[in-house]
Design goal:
With 163 residues, the chain is mostly helical. It has helices spanning 2-35, 37-58, 61-74, 78-109, 112-115, 118-127, 129-147, 149-160. It has eight helices and no strands.
Length: 163
């Protein structure tokens, strides 16, 4: 029974992956036809820089909040878990604001002939999402810890023993 379910899930994942990749390929071809190759290159350059800032903004936040909240919930200290959630929301929002400021400041010194005229406004518009992405990573970690009772039971066992 498990082998049958396993192969069924493999087929579902393979078909959905092929479908999503083919949609992405056709979307890229359509965008290239509309924008042109030069604008598509600039678009990819701007998005790759934004992805780097997004990586810095969200990396480690979710795992940290999950770990801390999970241990507090295992000890049944619900008030402290809420405090950790609120504190990490504030920390992640401030970190996102700092990265947004850096991204906006960097947009003023970018060479316009390399990035194009629209890149400056693109960096500022995309940078607005950084504080909110960071906050969503913190909330994702909190809710992951809240919904995983098996994790909490294991965390409760580990808390009482030495690491």
């Amino acid at each position: 029974m498990k082998k049958k379910l396993f192969f069924k899930n493999i087929i579902i994942m393979s078909v959905s992956s092929l479908l999503i990749r083919s949609i992405g390929m056709f979307f890229t071809i359509r965008i290239a036809a509309v924008m042109g190759t030069e604008m598509l290159g600039r678009y990819r350059l701007v998005i790759s820089i934004y992805a780097f800032f997004l990586l810095i903004c969200t990396s480690g936040v979710s795992v940290t909040v999950t770990r801390i909240t999970g241990e507090l919930l295992a000890k049944e200290e619900y008030g402290k878990a809420s405090y950790v959630r609120d504190r990490w929301l504030l920390i992640s929002f401030v970190a996102g604001l700092i990265l947004f400021s850096i991204m906006s400041a960097a947009s003023f010194i970018l060479p316009s002939d390399f990035f194009g005229e629209g890149a400056v406004s693109s960096f500022r518009i995309l940078g607005v999402s950084l504080p909110f992405a960071s906050c969503s990573a913190a909330l994702r970690g909190y809710f992951t810890a809240k919904r995983k009772p098996k994790f909490l039971i294991k965390a409760k066992i580990r808390i009482n023993s030495k690491f």
